[in-house]
Amino acid sequence: MASVPEQLLEAVDELDKNKPKRLKSAVTADEVEKADGKDGSIQTIRPSQTSVSVDLNAKAGATVNAPVLTGNVIQGPVIISFNSATGAVGPQNPPERQMSQKQEDDILQKILESHKDHIKAKTGRVFEGKKENKTHLSKVYTELFITEGDITEVYDEHEVLKFDRALKTPKFEDTPIDCNDIFSLLKQKEEGNIVLTKGIAGIGKTFSVHKFILDWAEGKANRDVDCVFLLPFREMNLIKDDKEISLHELLLEFYPDLNDVENTKFYKKCKLAFIFDGLDESRLELDFDCKLVKCVNARSSVDVLFTSLVIGKLLPSAFIWVTSRPAAANLIPPEYVGLFTEVRGFTDQQKEEYFRKRIVDEAQASKIISHIRTSRSLYIMCHIPVFCWITATVLQDILVKNDGQDIPSTLTEMYIHFLLIQMNMKNQKYEKKQERDRTKLLSSNKDMIFKLAKLAFEQLKEDNIMFYEKDLKACGINESEESTGLCTEIFKKDSVLHEMKVYYFIHLSVQEFLAALHVFLCYLKQDMEELIFFLENSRPNKKELLYVLLRKAIDKAKESDRGHFDLFLRFLLGISLESNQKLLIGLLDETLNSKNCINKTIQYIKQLQNNDKCPNKSINHFFCILELQDRTLYQQIMKYLRSENGQPKAVSNSNCSALVYVLLMSGEVLDDFDPKMFNKTYAGCRRLVPAVRCCRKALFSDCGLTQQCCETVAVALQLEDCPLSELDLSHNYSIEPGVKMLSAGLKSPHCHLETLRLACCHFGQESCVELVSALKNISHHLRELDLSGNDLQDSGLHKLLNEMENTERKLQVLRLSWCNLTSKSCGHFSLILSSDLPLTELDLSNNDLQNSGVKLISDGLKSPNCQLEILRLSGCMVTEEGCGYMSSALSSNPSHLRELDLSYNHPGPSGVQLLKHKLEDPEYKLQIFKYVLWVNEVAFIF
């Protein structure tokens, strides 16, 4: 046998479960290398001319080095024999030993099908309404507004300031993203390894993840992905910190059906996706500079496995999706993020869709939607799905009991009502009775509420939103109390990894509400030990205790870098109001007259605002004043927005949403609102769009508005108390897709616009027709209309004027420059000028009217009914002939026209002279005449 370049023969690749050890080493055929292993025997190799035989003996559990032949060409069969502790195994032929490709594929297919069934059961059904009723996800799932975000914005905004994300209109480049498309978008980016999705608590991140998984498992989306693993951080926390585990073993903890995966080339053959939900709930210590692992069988801590996947050292071809609340999103360095998305909750349209899905009775759903739309405070808070659910629950109850009277107007009122409803549901379920007396209801559940409130506060201090049995016991809660209704709609229990139990409040805001309730109860009981968290070294007397407590809580919230106690503070202030205490009688033995304390607290907040250097903090202070129902809120806002020189103060992009929220909640109506006075960027202006609901004049020209902005405007126009009389959306080039929504708003009986400017929005002819049809509704009070720079054409103008016929018309200003009009339209203008329409300004510049069109317009000017004062015909292809028609018209009716623009036409010297004569004659009202004379191809503008 001649020597040849190195050839590798692997003696044994993998044994079955009873023979798990891999045998490996390297020797040549020309020499025998003795290798021994722990508890193993010596092996010998016997070369021959046509075959090689290997003898190997090893005890069970032994680690040995098995020989591998190199440097020879092997002609003939290779016989491998080994002895195991369980008995001898004779010679095996390799084709018989190795699993066939078909067998391997069959096993893999069974594993994948079993996994899909398992994960469908895990994600396919959700709780909606009463706890015992599980509903299929597809029946209640409402599409959320998800957009691509900017990784640089992860860190710059407190979560409480994101509370009304409906007020955050999209960025210029933003378009809604279907959650099923995120991995496709990631591949297009070709940078970074993961998708990072942020969103505040309750905004719908987990629902989106479950919808993604369910659609994949049902074969509706992402068919290029072979297997998806959902790994919630709340469950990964249950794996002991000191336990070393491989990725394969970690997956077996969550998905035992994968036990047979070791018999396949699963990790090499399959396209895998890992979804890590709830980074903010993680208790892992993440270190992206640690030693990484590269093999699925290599053992390490769970945090190292996670970072190895994120960085791409472990399974680099796998998709990774991580969700997080904003505050924790910075735990992952931005260089590893290929796609950054943000869940922004429900748009206005999606809110209504949700209510109609959630409330089966269509009439009741319509009534609730109507009530919500008339309550500004509720409507703008309902972009959060969980708050939508809370609102639906509360309003259903209020509408049934008192026909919609006393609808909550603050967060605290809403959550008190929600608590009452949940206690009533608990009584009906476990005690088989309904308690209509609020005081008795709260009194009978006092002990349970007190314990939950203590738990909420103790865990909020630690920034925990997931708790375990030991946490419950520390607050005197016995887990077995579930049978008496401990786990209601506000408090949940899940069985997770190895049937371990994890507890959580249905939403972060519920935890913060109960935590605030606990602190107020401690104040009433004078429990100084519990209050020391806020009071620290202060020891105020009983009379001053509440004020000192509130002041210290305000200071504590201000010290937090990321708004840790902002919402808690608002609830604490709200509960301190005597009106809200009355709603809690039963839990409270009596109410406290806190008027003087509240007034002092308001003054303290205003004093802080005067010194606030951080806009985030100042905005949250507005929220606090709002919760205290202070009626001077609007004046405070205006004072804050004025700088020392009296000019508007610039507001950062991240604060625009919160600013609008406070403006809306103040209930005041602004005379005019120009977003560029506060923020000159397109992103900032878009976030300020919802201010159209609380102003008479909305000046949003050249603000980079989009289709979604049109929806916000349309909803405002449909509100019963919409104060808007002037709307300027000119020079927004991306709003054409929103024309139908805008038209729906204009058709609303509540729309009373007197001025509408849509100049240079680049509307096509079809969009113009859609818009014109909507103007009929407001034509009887429309005084100014500007459709310049849109493709109206003659047919669109004809439809516009027909829609305005037979109505009491008040139109005074009509601007239609650059509308692709011809002389065919000028007959209509002649009729308008001859009618009793009080038109005083007409701009038809840069349309191909020519002399024939000017003649028709001149005929209208001659009418004694004509009241026109300003006529602009710049760039209309008018020559000396047209100037003659115009001069004749002025001679017939000299009493009104005072400004005429014929610039960028070809009047010639004689044409100019005809009209200049009218300018110089005191008999005529003409004061301004604009024209251009061309001399040797040089334009002289007059």
Automatic annotation (TrEMBL):
<feature type="region of interest" description="Disordered">
    <location>
        <begin position="19"/>
        <end position="42"/>
    </location>
</feature>
<keyword id="KW-0067">ATP-binding</keyword>
<dbReference type="InterPro" id="IPR051261">
    <property type="entry name" value="NLR"/>
</dbReference>
<keyword id="KW-0677">Repeat</keyword>
<protein>
    <submittedName>
        <fullName>Si:dkey-156m2.3</fullName>
    </submittedName>
</protein>
<dbReference type="GO" id="GO:0005737">
    <property type="term" value="C:cytoplasm"/>
</dbReference>
<dbReference type="InterPro" id="IPR029495">
    <property type="entry name" value="NACHT-assoc"/>
</dbReference>
<dbReference type="Pfam" id="PF17779">
    <property type="entry name" value="WHD_NOD2"/>
</dbReference>
<dbReference type="InterPro" id="IPR027417">
    <property type="entry name" value="P-loop_NTPase"/>
</dbReference>
<dbReference type="InterPro" id="IPR007111">
    <property type="entry name" value="NACHT_NTPase"/>
</dbReference>
<feature type="domain" description="NACHT">
    <location>
        <begin position="193"/>
        <end position="328"/>
    </location>
</feature>
<keyword id="KW-0547">Nucleotide-binding</keyword>
<dbReference type="InterPro" id="IPR001611">
    <property type="entry name" value="Leu-rich_rpt"/>
</dbReference>
<dbReference type="InterPro" id="IPR041267">
    <property type="entry name" value="NLRP_HD2"/>
</dbReference>
<dbReference type="InterPro" id="IPR041075">
    <property type="entry name" value="NOD1/2_WH"/>
</dbReference>
<dbReference type="Pfam" id="PF14484">
    <property type="entry name" value="FISNA"/>
</dbReference>
<keyword id="KW-0433">Leucine-rich repeat</keyword>
<dbReference type="InterPro" id="IPR032675">
    <property type="entry name" value="LRR_dom_sf"/>
</dbReference>
<dbReference type="Pfam" id="PF05729">
    <property type="entry name" value="NACHT"/>
</dbReference>
<dbReference type="GO" id="GO:0005524">
    <property type="term" value="F:ATP binding"/>
</dbReference>
<keyword id="KW-0963">Cytoplasm</keyword>
<dbReference type="Pfam" id="PF17776">
    <property type="entry name" value="NLRC4_HD2"/>
</dbReference>
<dbReference type="Pfam" id="PF13516">
    <property type="entry name" value="LRR_6"/>
</dbReference>
